[in-house]
Write a structure and sequence with these properties.
homodimer, Neurolysin, domain 3, three-stranded mixed sheet, 20 helices
């Protein structure tokens, strides 16, 4: 096979891959958002067949030869094509691990588990979800043992979401976060501020929907390319830069829960929306790793969205959308309100200071459940014990405990650490950005475009074209330094709480 | 190939067909409802590849042999399997007509045309849509010439939506409708009633959404299996009985526009929701013909939804959802308001009496445009001329004229007559139903379940299992008799207008 023949074949393989993953993606988004509840059965049949097709067209000797041919001609191939072959080879290797029947059964299981998790969460019924999690874990372990027979299973899974991540690096990372942040969390808790009066009001969903629109506009999300849906658990999904979906969840007693979901998912969306046109519809369109993806979402959510400067445009928008509720609120009161720190139950609603300890608890539980040291039935007990030990809170039920997140229901064991890593990457990117961009001056004017332009230039535009480390090092101005993250948090919350 | 081998193969083919058409269906519904506007490009790529797969897996010698084998063993095959092979053979023959590349290009064209039609309608710009309609027409003509080389092209297209329909039967059908109804329409117009004061109010969308929920509940649409979306043009789509989607369009100045869309699409949905379990995920799940499908939607919309009896529960619901707007309205005023008859511009909002003449105009235009006797550029002029001649109204722009319906944008030339045929079928079904069901007694109580049970028993449950005529004749108590339809309209509107 000549290089040119191989490249033509690669184009065909990619066309099929794109189409099948586009369909799988939209079916899933539809299932999460507007589909009737009972639709999971038919969707499962469709997804199973699509995943069979995806497997067949990727895992076959011809595809193997196509990829090998391109990979051994690095000098002659153009760099984008070469990188497409590299990433396609990773996908090929990932899928190759399991026989087709097992792969398809896994896809069917994920679809069903998602439906069951929704029900189980609603009913706060761990026993309902447990048999599914058992099966999901068995699959994950089997996959890991085949993919990396010489590695620990959880290391293999971590690597699926963050290239190069392992317990060897994450154990000290989380230990440091816990050691550095716990004393401050305790001091802050001792100076607990009361919930300001303005927050004890009703924030009708219709108004919150208008609020979302204005937030998306300020974040620079073009509604022609990106729409907002409503789901139990907020997420972002994207098929290409002209078709990005984000979701949120409204709570009438609290406008900030949905607001930070919109801004967070909007950060993911900006990443997808800014990938270069020539990478669209190829396997390079999309974020480099989940950690880097989370660095973008949490950048907007926290570093920008919870900054003092952001309170200037935010208050204007809120006073426009919620004139009664926000009548007498000042920027400083708003800044204090969106940064109230208090150990709490729900990760997605946690304040910035306590957030990474929510992640740490999940990391510790995942480590043990994947290793087989923690039985599925014992997870809620262990979850509750750790929440008490680490954050000092009592978990009233599994809906507010081990059933709160959707990740395990789609087999995403190993995903959670990306949130903490992304938060840490983001602080280092901010420090780099501040060297050339007047971040706070422009944010205070409600103009996030210089921030986004910087991130698009350093990170977004490349999709998966660059290797993760080649993307991160220049954007962060050096390797990961968790002290930058803890230092940022310590300074911010010491000031906020006068410590 | 033995019969048993053929049946096993048929199961596999159907599994693939189901999955692909499920994906195509959901991608289209998503595109029409919540997808970002620019998403059509990526969706087009996905749909093109899925249609290529659908073509490949259906159009091949093995599938041909499978179907022939079953069809020549009618005596031994079980009746459901035999009928599945019959319908699959029809699909096979339909798809076989064109080479794959043309078939796929057609699917891509439809996707793009839909997006262009939306824009063109919004801008009332026929010239924008015209080149697409030219291409759609060229495809339809080519398809018809290959499918039925001995027939007139429009007859072939009509037959796609209503088995056995032809200009030979439809010409006198529409002529009779026009001759019988035109004098009454003129008399009614001469006695024009003013719009009642209560209708000149604002009906906020949030309230209309609640209204939709209550209407759907009264119609017996289980939200676990059927959800409502919002689109420019209302429609129903279904992948199986546990996943049916209907849509509506809200107008703040008029609650009845959306209300009758919901009830109409709800009638389509009930058909899909009531098909027997053992036919689900086979090619027999779905309506027998589009005429029969429309007979169900228009049954609920008009025969029930615009009846005097229905005004009793309707007024209760409206006074609950719109307490201010409906404060002093009586059942009789409501009955008069929902049956105001007046020649108008928009088919989907037309009253029952003038409705079929809207369809007749489309039929006459389609006949000529498919035959090549009416150029695409001349359609709006001819449209406007006929609206003036037949209904006496002046069309202000193409948004309210030839661009109003989506059908041509998806190549649905030949679809429109189904609406008039369905309306006529429905009246004959009602006459049969009245022999054993206390229709008006139970409707007045807001209980539509005996009506739906009758229709489910006679029509819905069978999906495509029975041949259309075998389904229609017993349900209608005899062959099509348009006089039943015109007689029903004459009686109702003579009474309403004291003629």
């Amino acid at each position: 096979m000549t290089l040119q023949e191989a490249v033509e074949k690669l184009n065909e393989i990619e066309k099929a891959s794109y189409a099948l993953s586009h369909a799988q993606s939209i079916l899933s988004v539809d299932g999460e958002t507007v589909a009737p509840k009972n639709s999971w059965k038919g969707r499962g049949k469709a997804l199973a067949y699509l995943s069979e097709l995806a497997y067949r067209q990727l895992v076959n000797p011809e595809t193997g030869e196509v990829l090998e041919t391109i990979l051994k001609h690095q000098a002659e191939a153009d760099p984008v094509t070469f990188r497409r072959a590299e990433i396609m080879k990773e996908n090929y290797d990932d899928m190759h691990v399991l026989p087709m029947d097992e792969y398809v059964a896994w896809q069917e299981l994920i679809n069903e588990s998602g439906a069951v998790w929704h029900d189980a969460k609603e009913k706060s019924d761990w026993a309902m979800f447990a048999p599914y999690l058992d099966k999901l874990l068995a699959y994950s372990r089997r996959y890991a043992s085949l993919k990396g027979p010489d590695k620990l299973p959880y290391d293999v899974l971590l690597n699926e979401y963050e290239k190069g991540a392992s317990m060897e690096t994450l154990d000290p990372f989380f230990r440091m976060l816990r050691e550095e942040l716990s004393p401050l969390i305790r001091e802050v808790a001792a100076r607990e501020k009361p919930l300001p009066a303005f927050m004890k009001q009703v924030w009708p969903v219709a108004q919150q929907r208008r609020f979302s629109e204005k937030l998306m506009a300020m974040e620079g999300l073009d509604p022609l390319n990106c729409t907002l849906g409503e789901t139990e658990h907020p997420f972002t999904d994207s098929t290409n830069k002209w078709d990005v979906r984000i979701t949120t969840h409204y709570h009438e007693e609290d406008p900030f829960s949905s607001m930070y979901s919109v801004i967070h998912e909007g950060g993911h969306a900006l990443y997808e929306l800014d990938v270069r046109d020539d990478l669209q519809f190829t396997c390079l369109a999309g974020g480099a790793t989940m950690g880097i993806h989370e660095s973008q979402s949490r950048f907007y959510e926290n570093l920008i969205g919870r900054s003092r400067a952001f309170c200037t445009p935010l208050l204007k928008i809120m006073q426009d959308v919620f004139p009664d509720q926000m009548k007498d609120v000042s920027e400083d009161e708003l800044y204090s309100a969106i940064n109230l720190s208090k150990p709490s139950l729900i990760r997605t609603e946690a304040d910035e200071l306590t957030y990474s300890l929510h992640v740490m608890i999940r990391y510790e539980i995942e480590k043990r459940m994947v290793a087989g040291d923690l039985a599925v039935k014992d997870i809620p007990g262990e979850w509750n014990r750790m929440y008490k030990e680490v954050l000092g809170v009592d978990v009233p039920d599994d809906r507010h405990g081990a059933l709160q997140d959707s990740h395990w229901s789609f087999g995403g064991m190993g995903y959670f650490p990306s949130y903490a890593l992304g938060s840490a990457y983001g602080v280092q990117m901010l420090r780099e950005m501040e060297k050339t961009v007047d971040v706070w001056g422009t944010v205070a004017k409600g103009d996030l475009s210089p921030v986004t332009a910087w991130l698009a230039d350093r990170i977004h535009q490349y999709g998966m074209l660059k290797k993760p480390q080649d993307l991160l090092l220049p954007a962060m101005g050096g390797p990961l330094d968790p002290a930058a993250y803890t230092g940022y948090l310590k300074k911010k919350f010491s000031e906020l709480y006068g410590i």
